[in-house]
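Supplementary Methods, section 5.1.

A reviewer requested that the exact input to the structure prediction be made available. We therefore reproduce it here, unchanged from the version used in the analyses.
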Amino acid sequence: MNIIPKVKNIKEKGEIFISPEFSSDERLSFCKKTFLRMCRKIYGVLIEEGDGGIKLLYDESLNKDEYKINGAFVYASDTEGAAYGLATMIQLMEKAENGFKLRDTEIVDKPDKDFRAYMEDVKTELTDFDSLIALVDICWLYKVKYIQLHLMDNKAWTLPLKCFPDAATKGKSYKREEIEYLYMYSNLYRKIR
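The structure derived from this sequence is encoded token-by-token as follows.
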């Protein structure tokens, strides 16, 4: 059983150098902010808009959630496929002087299943909030579509409620603002369905 999704069709051709630039087709531009944020977090590099680096292009011949990579070009027909392709692209990149080394590959890939999820049990031992934010980033990078948080049971209630403010277990619950921010942050990765 594979825990982390593996690319199905890959052909490696060597290495190329790309400048720290990114451009995208307007139909897929929803993924741009996430990709640029993840590059900044992982590589510490601010990628500018421009034509010398990675290009995200629309290809209507690709199925839902499918993507194709050819060198520095990522092709997709929808935002899910684009997000998966850009996550793979980050894994192919390596920081270099004045840009990135990129494993020059041809890839065609799509998920085997629509439902790929990770569950975190936060009610047994409260996971610190910054770790939950990092979990969202990690799930994006490994193409995990859903995160389920086990927030309550008969031993602990970690979800704050406006209607029952005393229901949350003291010292073992999140603040309402944290839950709202987590929801907003995780939805930056994909359009709300």
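Strands lie at 9-18, 21-24, 48-49, 54-58, 67-70, 73-76, 93-96, 99-109, 117-121, 146-150. These observations are discussed further in the main text.
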